[in-house]
Write a structure and sequence with these properties.
six-stranded mixed β-sheet, seven-stranded mixed β-sheet, 2 domains, binds NADP nicotinamide-adenine-dinucleotide phosphate, alpha/beta, Aldehyde Dehydrogenase, Chain A, domain 1, 484 residues, binds magnesium ion
Length: 484
């Protein structure tokens, strides 16, 4: 499976860490319930196409039950509870995630297709960190600079995508719970399993019934949830297209809403940058998680004098990456999450070629079963081409060049999105100057794709609005807060 010159013996993580049930109900009011008016669907492993489990699909009556359970828990238990008591539950959840970290990592790699070294070293520890961080805030909200008596909003409907299933659940639930809200969460159809194990963890933590309800299903379940009149706030992470649709559907309802949407980040490399470090950053920026990252550095802007050298070094590095079994500890590139996503990537990559950009991938053996796309680099890309403008959400990099900082800033901002960007330079003053002029919610300097629960994350323009993480993230779940 490897396409490097080096041979590695297989080093698969054992599947014995997980005990996937043959079928899962909906998690409503602290109990596992069969759908009343929904149905069932199967979730498969994108690397082997093996069916992993049967999962319930929540219909309108099921969503209604979940929202009513959340309302009851909000009024009777969770909102009146002192913050220091809420904190105990949230700390407990964080510790249980750590205790079950191996299981969660294996499960996430099975259901999503991402390499185990990512789920083990990034997704699961960051998910635990989000619960720890927000547990710490639960009894200190009056000191967060968000007003003397910040109050929860009520029942929150949360809809998340498939690219970081557990981590996105943690980003949504931890701040909502710390601030005294109750939740109904809808995971993505192709990756429901880690959220269902999280429900088991809520049971283990004795979280009062109804504080978190998990309703699995497809986009229809999501649409029912956000439109439910019993929801006070919608928090959505996903595509710009669905985000716009939700915004339209909610207009005039008085519901609060935060949207975390797509991106087309520029990674800007100046000629004085530490180049080998930058090459690692570029690889991490776009090939991490198969490019299934909203803030992926999918456009490389490299200064002309170093462009050729950077692209050559990048290709040499890509030729050493290993694509294959997500459970193998040596795997760098896992499977594409679904056949639909694979089709989107193929179509956009074909458009890049048709529009005249030069396409390159390392020699690479693709496994017979499952959904795979090799790391791909397009050079000679013009700013107007689709691969330079549209979010591809796959391991595909478009390389553009620039001469002056002014030109770099102009090209970087020439997008309808504004989620993230990267700047690589030896000069701190240049990094700060360029960063301040980039229209992006997050700018990394001499690094890429770094996350911390204390650091707010979110976008501008078509990348959405609202922030997750830090005090800014807390404020989105409080009434009378600064920018909530
Ligand atoms: P998506 O199609 O928008 O789906 C996201 C979630 O919304 C899924 O749970 C989906 O259910 C649900 N959904 C679909 N239609 C809906 C509707 N009409 N009403 C309510 N919910 C609905 O996005 P995706 O393609 O799965 O995810 C990739 C996108 O997410 C990318 O564009 C990426 O940039 C973005 N993303 C952004 C961030 C960020 O923080 N800004 C983070 C991660 C991902 P189903 O799964 O069943 O369709
Ligand atoms: Mg799956």
């Amino acid at each position: 499976m490897a396409f490097s010159r080096f041979a590695y013996a297989p080093a698969p993580e054992s599947r014995s860490a997980v005990n996937i049930r043959p079928s899962y109900g909906l998690f409503i009011a602290g109990e596992w319930a069969s759908p009343l008016d929904g149905g069932h669907f199967k979730t498969e492993s994108p690397s082997s196409q093996e069916v992993l489990a049967e999962v319930s699909s929540a219909g309108p009556e099921d969503v209604d039950r979940a929202v009513r359970a959340a309302r009851r828990a909000y009024e009777e238990t969770w909102a009146p509870m002192p913050g220091k008591e809420r904190a105990k539950y949230i700390f407990r959840v964080a510790r249980l995630i750590q205790e079950r970290s191996r299981e969660l990592a294996v499960l996430e790699s099975l259901d999503n297709g991402k390499p185990i070294k990512e789920s083990r070293d990034v997704d699961v520890p960051l998910a635990a960190a989000h619960f720890f961080y927000h547990a710490g805030w639960a009894d200190k909200l009056a000191y967060a600079g968000l007003g003397p008596d910040p109050r929860p909003i009520g029942v929150v409907g949360q809809v998340i995508p498939w690219n970081f299933p557990l981590l996105m659940a943690a980003w949504k639930l931890a701040p909502a719970l710390a601030t005294g809200n109750t939740c109904v969460l809808k995971p993505a159809e192709t990756t429901p399993l880690s959220a269902l194990v999280l429900a088991e963890i809520f049971e283990q933590a004795d979280l009062p019934p109804g504080v978190v309800n998990i309703v699995t299903g497809d986009g229809g379940t999501g649409a029912t949830l956000v439109a439910h009149p019993g929801i006070d706030k919608v928090a959505f992470t996903g595509s710009t297209e669905v985000g716009k649709h939700i915004l339209g559907a909610l207009a005039g309802t008085g519901k609060r809403i935060t949207l975390e949407l797509g991106g087309k980040a520029a990674n800007i490399v100046f000629d004085d940058a530490p180049l080998s470090q930058a090459v690692e950053g570029i690889v991490n920026g776009i090939f991490f998680n198969q490019g299934h990252v909203c803030c992926a550095g999918s456009r490389l802007l490299v200064q002309e004098p170093v462009a050729e050298g950077v692209v050559e070094a990048l290709k040499r590095r890509l030729a050493t990456l290993r694509l294959g079994d997500p459970l193998d500890k040596n795997t760098d590139i896992g499977a594409i999450n679904s056949p639909q996503q694979l089709e989107k990537i193929r179509e956009l990559a074909a458009a890049g070629e048709a529009e005249g950009a030069e396409r390159w991938s390392p020699a690479c053996q693709i496994p017979e079963r499952g959904y795979w796309f090799p790391p791909t680099v397009f050079t000679g890309v013009a700013p107007g081409q689709r691969i330079a403008r549209e979010e591809i959400f796959g391991p595909v990099l478009s390389v553009l060049t620039f001469r002056t900082p002014e030109e770099a800033i102009e090209k970087a901002n020439n997008t309808t999105y504004g989620l993230s960007a990267g700047v690589w330079t030896d000069k701190g003053s240049r990094a700060l100057q360029v960063a301040s002029r980039l229209k992006a919610g997050v700018v990394w300097a001499n690094t890429f794709n770094r996350f911390d629960p204390a650091s707010p994350f979110g976008g501008y323009r078509e990348s959405g609005f609202g922030r997750e993480g830090g005090r800014q993230g807390l404020s989105q779940y409080l009434k009378g807060a600064l920018d909530g």
